């Protein structure tokens, strides 16, 4: 059987943008910005997208396009059987992320319906408290998961490519419309001021916290570490510039995040809500409250939650595809059967997360970030120290002159700088979770040591160093 592939280059780019643009952009990003001092956060975030996110994304693309296989198969093909578990970690990361993501997807569908019927207008606070966990949450998780599965079932080109080619432009157009509408709200300027002015004092006082949040978001928003981008790149059948594609993908993704902020902050300020308090759920509540108070509540609510639904679905599709690709590539299972099997798995994992707030929080806050970090660390060490020259060759294939000159610096960055950085943030989140406090210097030493040991163990002759 011939392997699935994208029909067009734009199709691949839009599918990848669809994966990147998600709840992370329209919900997590504005919320983190609000919580971390407005534009101070924005600045660091942009820096990390360029310095960490894009190089990491290319690290995944290179492995996927070279191997033309699912993550586990890709490692086995290019590095030997011993590398299979590393692909397994990415696979696990995709399962962890979709397990809570699908629950949030269910909430969003609820808000979409609630906007049409006006269900949350009278009491936004109580509405969220009534839908967040429990059997209702399970039911809407199942609905969201079924929509996701239907697209994956239809195939790479006739399902994912077709759906995202419609969804991504839809997201952009609707968001631009919403941002234009938001600019006409009373006190919109207050929102822009908060969002776009830099508070240097805040940044200085909280540098490490803001940086950690910005780095985590830069990885999450570009969907790296879970094998999603590797799998999508494995469906490429001609060699165009991965660097150019990666830059376009990151650029569009950032644009959507910025646009979402240009909608959300004027809305919050127009009804006098100070953003940044009360955690992630609060954003849902205060936005819903704001829509209820503004004219044309239903139209605005449906449009906004419609955008969030499209964004969430196109990301969920990419996460669902990872285990499906594994079953299809490694076990020769047909796509329909693989979709059914993977759907059953998520039915259970997401269902449990929808019933247990503790498990949900553990997955969403800690396990997911850690799994993405470890997953990406594995990809990058593999690129730098096992593939080495082969990775560079794959990067250069189809690349233009500018991208070529950046090839070597890119490889050095993903082989040395980024792994130390990822090990540092990973260690820092582990120690924070365990409640032990280690000074930053200690974490850095630990990170350097860990990467050093890994390099000594992994290094192959093809490595460029
Ligand atoms: N990038 C998606 C978002 O911003 C989340 C995601 C993470 C998707 C990892 C796939 C893999 O919502």
TrEMBL record:
What GO CC terms are in its UniProt record?
A: membrane
Q: Which Pfam families match?
A: SNF
The record's CDD domains line, in alphabetical order, gives:
SLC6sbd_Tyt1-Like
Primary site of residence: membrane
Q: How does it sit in the membrane?
A: Multi-pass membrane protein
Q: Which UniProt keywords apply?
A: Membrane, Transmembrane, Transmembrane helix, Transport
Q: List where in the cell it is found.
A: Membrane
- Residue spans crossing the bilayer: 38-58, 89-113, 133-155, 162-182, 210-236, 248-271, 304-328, 340-360, 366-388, 409-430, 436-458
Keyword Ribonucleoprotein carried by entry: no
Q: What is this protein called?
A: Sodium-dependent transporter
Question: What organism does the UniProt record list as the source?
Answer: Halorientalis pallida
Q: What is the lineage of its organism?
A: Archaea, Methanobacteriati, Methanobacteriota, Stenosarchaea group, Halobacteria
